[in-house]
Each structure stands twice: as structure tokens, then as C-alpha cells.
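Example 3.2
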Amino acid sequence: MEEMIKLTGLRKSFGKNEILKDISFTLEKGRVLSIIGPSGSGKSTTLRIITQLERADDGTLEIAGRTLFSSIDGKAVYARPQEEREIGLKTGLVFQAFNLFPHFTVLRNITEAQRAVLRRSREEAEDKAIALLRKMGLEDKAREYPFQLSGGQQQRVSIARALALDPEVLFFDEPTSALDPELTREILRVIRELAEEKMTMVVVTHEMHFARLISDHAIFMDKGVIVEEGSPDELFGNPKEERTRKFIASFED
């Protein structure tokens, strides 16, 4: 199958604090990867590097067959700026804190990047936005502002905004961490529907049951390394590493 993400030897430090130590994994088209682990393990930093919100120190990353950066003499060397921008359009990121523009309507939150980045006409961008809002069950909220929505509705708008740019891989960084259980179910339903449609996704989450249910592959990270990885049944049902077992057990009743 076609590889959408191929990450090799990723390293990242902030000052003298090494956050990521030789992170490597691949993700095939149409598959879902879940990344679990304690706070500070490097999960979100990994996502931020892949989606170009942070710069890698070392390693190689290919997205949909194009190289964003490669390791040369122990340092990550990035593609030219135009190439970076084009590769960046292949990824979308849904933040845990929604990150909607409070002074824009829901509709404009979804159309703004389409018009600025993809140069779509207003009509084309609005048609796309309305179709996505309908998919999210929020078509009637198009003219409202973020403050008028529940947390779950805001997160569904942020998912629609990410999808509006037609990414080939969609990343979720703890998409339910700011939501109560009822609203969490709304978001998990949307992500599950996207998985059923074979959207390629990477989900950083603390929802263990959901991660096991939705994933094709799962990774457990701790202290900047991949401690263990495997199928969801292997990782969640029969982990080999003691550190993994303790982490998963901490979520059980």
C-alpha cells in the first residue's frame, strides 16, 4: 500500500532538554494510527513537527512521497520554502483547544483559509464549507459565532475547517481533552465516521477504548521514545512492555 507518512530518526530538543529521541514510524494510506502516552512524552511535539508548527533537529520525513526534511550530517535539512508549503497542504491538524477565530462566523472560519491558501472563489469556498457543516450536523450554525456554540460544536467546526483544505492526512492532538463525556462522544463519532471513509489519520488521544476501536496501528510513547507499537489488540490487550502495561492499567476501572 502507498505510504502517506514515513518518519525516520526524528530528534528534537528545546535547549538542553531532548524531547524526541529517534522517533520512527510509517503510516499507509487509508489507515488510522493512534499515539498514546503520558503528558510530556513527546506525542504533541511529533505532530507539530509533521504539520510544520515546529522544526526538527534531525531525521527524515516523507509525506505522500515528498520529502519535507532529510538527515544530512546529523541535522534535519528542509526542502525549499515553496516545496514546504506544498507539502504542508497535504496535512491538516485539529487542535485540542479548537483555535477558531472568535470574530469570524462559523462559515468564515471554514472559508478563510480556502480563499487565502487555495485561492478558491467565495462561492466555491462557501459551498465546500456548507457541505462540511452538513456532514458535521451543523449546517444551521453557519452564521453563528464560536462563542454561541458548545465545545463539541466548536470542535466539529475545527474538524470541518481542517477538512476544507482537502488534506491527505488529518492529525488530531487530544481532540476531546477539553470536553465533557457527552461532547466527547460527538467528536469520537465524527472521527469514527472519517475512519470508515478511509481518511488517513493520526490521533493523539487519552481515550484508550476509542483508540483501540478505531486504530489500525498504535504507538505508546514515553520520555521521547517509542516504547512499544503494534496492532490495537496487541498494544491494548497484551502489551509486552511493563511501562505500557502500567500506563494502560491506569485508565482501567
